[in-house]
Design a protein that fits this description.
Shape: elongated
Strand content: 5-15%
Number of strands: 10
Protein name: [fructose-bisphosphate aldolase]-lysine N-methyltransferase
CATH superfamily of the largest domain: Rubisco LSMT, substrate-binding domain
Keywords: Chloroplast, Methyltransferase, Plastid, S-adenosyl-L-methionine, Transferase, Transit peptide
Distance between the termini: 49 Å
EC number: 2.1.1.259
Radius of gyration: 27 Å
Subcellular location: Plastid, Chloroplast
Strand order of the largest sheet: 1-9-10
GO cellular component, one term: chloroplast
Number of helices: 16
Structural class: alpha+beta
Length: 491
C-alpha cells in the first residue's frame, strides 16, 4: 500500500522557510533555576566597563558611550563574563518590565540600513536576509565601517549545527536535525552561488575584497542566532548590545522588545529599541529573555547552538501526505484544502503534549478507502470533516494506528544508540557539540516513544469505540437502548 506519511523535522520561518526534509517510510551550560550572583564590584559604576573583559568589548562599550547609548542612567545592565560566555548582568536591582537598555535606530542593522548604504541599489531585489548578510560581510572588511567596533565583537562561529564538521554531524545519525541541517547548508550554498554570479561579480567596484562561502555562512550564522524579529515592522534586525542577552527557560513570556520614540542623544530624537526585563533581577544577576517559546530543541540547536533545559522542547514532525496514486486523490485533496490543509501536512508533536487537533482527522482522511469511500461523495462534502473528528470504521482506525506504530518503529531503528546508552553518555562531561547531539537524538526517541504509546493505547480501545455507522443508526432512531438494531416488520 502507499505510504500514509513521512517523518520530518520542525522548521523555523525566522529568516527563511527551512526546507522540510522527508524520510520515506514503506551546549552552553543549562541555566540553573536559582540565578547565579556574579561579582559586581567592577560593574558598580554605570559608565565603566569591566576592565577584565576582552579589549574589543571595552572598545565597543566606549563606542556606545560616544553614541550616547551609555549614560549615567542607562543601561541598567552591562556586558559581563557569564557561564554562557558573554551576557548582560545587572549593575543595580531591576524591576519586572523595567527598561534595561535602549538603542537608537541609527545603530540598527536591518534591510533599511542596507537600502541606505552604498550597496543598496544592487541589493534591492535580494531576499532581506541575503542583503543584510552581504552588508555584514562588506562592512566587516572595511576598516572605516560605522559598525567596526560592533563587528569586532561578533563570534566567528557558534555551535549551530551548520558549523559542525562531518565527524560531528555523524553523531546526529538517525535524527531529523541531521537532514534539516544538510538541507539548510545546501540552501545557503545555493543562495551564495546565485548572489556571487548575479550581484558580487558584476559589481566588483562595490565588493573589492573577496567574499567566500565561509564568509556567507558566518553572516548567516550571525543573523540566525542574534537577530530580533518582534518589533513593529521589523522582521530582521541586529541590535548592538541588546544581542548580548541570553536565553532562559525560566522566562515564560516573549514580551521584552519594543520600538519606541524617544531621546537618542543629547539633542536628538529617534526610534529606539527598548529592551525590558521580563522578570525581577537583583544586582549581580544575569538578565535573561525567552528567545522563542514555540521553537523545538532541534531549532535551538540549528539557530543558536545550544539546547533548552525544558524537556518539552523535544519535538518530532509527522509529515502526512495524500499519495497522488490514491484513486481518491482529487476528492481527498479538495477536502483537505477546504479545511486549511493540503496534499502534504506537517504536524509538530512535543514530548508530554497532546496531539495537534487536526492530526487524527487528517490521518483518517488519508487512510479512507474501501467501503468507507462513500464518505467522499459530494453529498457529504460539507460534513465530512466533522465526521472525521470521530472514528470512521474499525478498519480505518486500525490502519492509522498500525501505520503510525510501524513508522515510529522504523524511525527508532535508524538511531545508532538507545535512550539508555545516551543517558549513560550524559553522565560524563561531553564536548558542547556532542552534548547537543546526544540531547537531540535522545529527545527525538522519547517523542517517538510518546507517539507510539498514544497509538498503542488507541489500538487497545478499538473494540470500545463508536464508529460512523453506529452513530448514523442512532441518529435515525434505528438502535434501541442496548444499541441493538431495531427492525420493523411490514404490516
Amino acid at each position: 500500500m502507499d505510504t500514509l506519511f513521512t517523518l520530518s523535522s520542525s522548521s523555523s520561518n525566522f529568516i527563511f522557510p527551512t526546507p522540510r526534509t522527508k524520510l520515506s517510510l514503506a551546549k552552553p551550560p543549562t541555566h540553573p533555576k536559582n540565578p547565579v550572583r556574579l561579582a559586581v564590584t567592577a560593574l558598580s559604576s554605570p559608565l565603566q566597563c569591566d576592565p577584565s573583559l576582552p579589549p574589543p568589548v571595552q572598545t565597543f562599550w566606549q563606542w556606545l558611550r560616544d553614541e550616547g547609548v551609555v549614560s549615567a542612567k542607562s543601561p541598567a545592565a552591562k556586558p559581563a563574563l557569564v557561564p554562557e560566555g558573554m551576557g548582560l548582568v545587572a549593575h543595580r536591582d531591576i524591576s519586572k518590565n523595567e527598561v534595561v537598555l535602549e538603542v537608537p535606530k541609527r545603530l540598527w542593522i536591518n534591510p533599511d540600513t542596507v537600502s541606505a548604504s552604498e550597496i543598496g541599489g544592487v541589493c534591492s531585489g535580494l531576499k532581506p536576509w541575503v542583503s543584510v548578510a552581504l552588508f555584514l560581510i562588506r562592512e566587516k572588511s572595511r576598516a572605516d565601517s560605522k559598525w567596526r567596533t560592533y563587528l569586532d565583537i561578533l563570534p566567528e562561529s557558534t555551535n549551530s549545527t551548520v558549523f559542525w564538521s562531518e565527524e560531528e554531524l555523524d553523531q546526529l545519525q538517525g535524527t531529523q536535525l541531521l537532514s534539516t541541517t544538510m538541507s539548510v547548508k545546501e540552501y545557503v550554498r545555493t543562495e551564495f552561488q546565485k548572489l556571487e554570479q548575479e550581484t558580487i561579480l558584476p559589481n566588483k567596484q562595490l565588493f573589492p575584497s573577496p567574499i567566500t562561502l565561509d564568509d556567507f555562512f558566518w553572516a548567516f550564522g550571525i543573523l540566525r542566532s542574534r537577530a530580533f524579529s518582534r518589533l513593529r515592522g521589523q522582521n530582521l534586525v541586529l541590535i548592538p548590545l541588546a544581542d548580548f542577552i541570553n536565553h532562559s527557560s525560566s522566562i515564560t513570556t516573549e514580551e521584552h522588545a519594543y520600538e519606541v520614540k524617544g531621546a537618542a542623544g543629547l539633542f536628538s530624537w529617534d526610534y529606539l529599541f527598548s529592551l525590558r526585563s521580563p522578570a525581577t533581577v537583583k544586582a549581580g544577576e544575569q538578565v535573561f529573555i525567552q528567545y522563542d517559546i514555540n521553537k523545538s530543541n532541534a531549532e535551538f540547536a540549528l539557530d543558536y547552538g545550544f539546547l533548552d533545559s525544558n524537556a518539552n522542547r523535544n519535538g518530532f514532525t509527522l509529515t502526512l501526505e495524500i499519495s497522488e496514486s490514491d484513486p481518491f486523490y482529487e476528492d481527498k485533496l479538495d477536502i483537505a484544502e477546504t479545511n486549511g490543509l493540503g496534499a502534504t501536512a506537517y504536524f509538530d508533536i512535543f514530548l508530554e503534549s497532546s496531539l495537534p487537533p487536526a492530526l487524527i482527522p487528517y490521518l483518517r482522511l488519508v487512510a479512507l478507502g474501501g467501503t468507507d469511500a462513500f464518505l467522499l461523495e459530494s453529498i457529504f462534502r460539507n460534513d465530512i470533516w466533522g465526521h472525521l473528528q470521530l472514528p470512521v470504521s474499525p478498519a480505518n482506525e486500525e490502519l492509522i494506528c498500525r501505520v503510525v506504530q510501524d513508522a515510529c518503529k522504523s524511525a527508532l531503528s535508524g538511531y545508532p544508540t538507545t535512550i539508555e546508552e545516551d543517558e549513560k553518555l550524559k553522565e560524563s562531561k561531553l564536548d558542547p557539540r556532542l552534548e547537543i547531539a546526544v540531547g537531540i537524538r535522545q529527545g527525538e526517541k522519547k517523542v517517538l516513544q510518546h507517539i507510539d504509546g498514544i497509538f498503542r493505547a488507541r489500538e487497545s480501545e478499538l473494540p470500545q469505540l463508536e464508529y460512523y455507522q453506529e452513530r448514523r443508526l442512532k441518529d435515525l432512531g434505528l438502535c434501541g437502548e442496548l444499541e441493538d438494531i431495531v427492525f420493523w416488520e411490514p404490516k
